[in-house]
């Protein structure tokens, strides 16, 4: 009999994310992870079948947490501006509270895990987002447009501001720091661009 | 929170089976074994960990079986 220590499971997850964020997927191995967690390699293989299984399971769990955070207190029946504002609040809070996760997901997006990463997970989340877009178009609040166009206008500005903030500078090298004022000014411009 | 679970059916071994050709031997030995539920090998890991789910097979028997075919295999601790 072994003890499944939930704190240990959590530690494994946290350290795996840290290692992948800092060293990339290439340098990530079960041996390295076991060393960092100060547990035996065998313990890791009790929890996970292999390296792929570990990466995919952790990613799935984290995607679920992110999806839940983004739809918190959000209702796809909300008006366009109210709904988008809630989305921006939730997405921004998630990024601030989980600064590593953006880099983690980016690492996976540009890897062979992309297919696993994108397929199936977050189905509920995607359905809610799709429903919101459908509702606001149906009510005539915004024009009908392809999802990619909608997403690029509605959310890409937020993620780009966060990128500038994380890099600490703007395109021309001037220092940049995100503030509530910048965030909500940008939001107003996004609403203006999309709302009829 | 801790929960006690029985993991005795998860058998873990350190091996030197690290390429597809070597892996073929495992397919021959393990795929249709009546006492093995499933198995996999992590050839990306430096310990080339072989993971077998079996409720009845003793570890020693697997070690012997793989050693007999000229490969290293010992319990992963």
Give a verbal description of the structure:
- The complex is a heterodimer of chains A (196) and B (77).
- By secondary structure, chain A is an all-alpha fold.
- Chain A folds into two domains: 48 residues, Arc Repressor Mutant, subunit A, CATH 1.10.10.60; 128 residues.
- Chain A is built from eleven helices and one strand.
- Chain A is globular and about 60 Å long.
- Chain B has 77 residues and is α+β, with helices and mostly antiparallel strands.
- Chain B has a single domain, classed as 2-Layer Sandwich (Alpha-Beta Plaits).
- In chain B, 27% of the residues lie in helices and 30% in strands.
- Chain B has a four-stranded antiparallel sheet, with helices on one face.
- The chains are: A mainly alpha (196), B alpha+beta (77).
- At the A-B interface, strand 1 and helix 3 of A face strand 1 and strand 3 of B.
- Strand 1 of chain A pairs antiparallel with strand 1 of chain B, so a sheet runs across the interface.
- Chain B: InterPro entries: HMA_dom_sf (IPR036163).
- Chain B: This is HMA domain-containing protein.
- Chain A: This is AcrR family transcriptional regulator.
- Chain A: Keywords: DNA-binding.
- Chain A: Pfam families: TetR_N.
Tally of discrete structural domains of chain B:
1
- Portion of residues within helices of chain B: 25-40%
**Tally of helical runs of chain B:** 2
Instruction: Give helix and strand order of chain B, one letter per element, not per position.
Output: EEHEEHE
**Largest interface, and how many residues on either side?**
A-B, 18 and 21 residues
Which structural class do you get from the secondary structure elements of chain B?
A: alpha+beta
Beta-strand fraction estimate of chain B: 25-35%
Oligomer: heterodimer
Rg of chain A, rounded, reads 19 Å
Indicate the percent of residues in helices of chain A: 55-70%
User: Ranges of chain A with pLDDT <50 over ≥5 residues?
Assistant: none
**Overall number of strands of chain B:** 5
Number of strands of chain A: 1
Instruction: Please give the domain count of chain A.
Output: 2
């Amino acid at each position: 009999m072994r003890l499944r220590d939930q704190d240990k499971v959590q530690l494994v997850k946290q350290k795996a994310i840290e290692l992948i964020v800092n060293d990339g997927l290439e340098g990530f191995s079960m041996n390295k992870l076991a060393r960092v967690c100060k547990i035996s390699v065998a313990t890791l293989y009790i929890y996970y079948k292999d390296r792929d299984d570990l990466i995919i399971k952790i990613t799935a769990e984290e995607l679920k947490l992110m999806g839940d955070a983004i739809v918190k207190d959000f209702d796809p029946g909300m008006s366009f501006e109210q709904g988008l504002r809630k989305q921006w609040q939730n997405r921004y809070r998630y990024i601030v509270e989980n600064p590593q996760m953006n880099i983690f997901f980016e690492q996976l997006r540009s890897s062979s895990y992309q297919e696993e990463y994108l397929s199936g997970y977050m189905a509920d989340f995607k359905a809610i987002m799709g429903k919101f877009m459908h509702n606001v178009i149906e009510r005539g609040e915004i024009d009908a447009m392809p999802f990619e166009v909608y997403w690029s206008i509605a959310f890409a500005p937020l993620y780009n501001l966060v990128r500038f903030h994380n890099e600490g500078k703007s395109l021309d090298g001037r220092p940049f720091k995100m503030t509530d004022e910048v965030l909500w000014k940008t939001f107003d411009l996004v609403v203006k661009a999309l709302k009829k | 929170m801790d929960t006690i679970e029985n993991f005795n059916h998860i058998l873990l071994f350190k091996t030197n089976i690290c390429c597809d050709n070597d892996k073929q031997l495992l397919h021959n030995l393990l795929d249709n074994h009546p006492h093995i539920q499933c198995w996999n090998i992590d050839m990306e890991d430096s310990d080339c960990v072989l993971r077998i789910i079996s409720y009845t097979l003793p570890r020693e028997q697997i070690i012997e079986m793989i050693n007999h075919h000229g490969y290293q295999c010992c319990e992963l601790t």
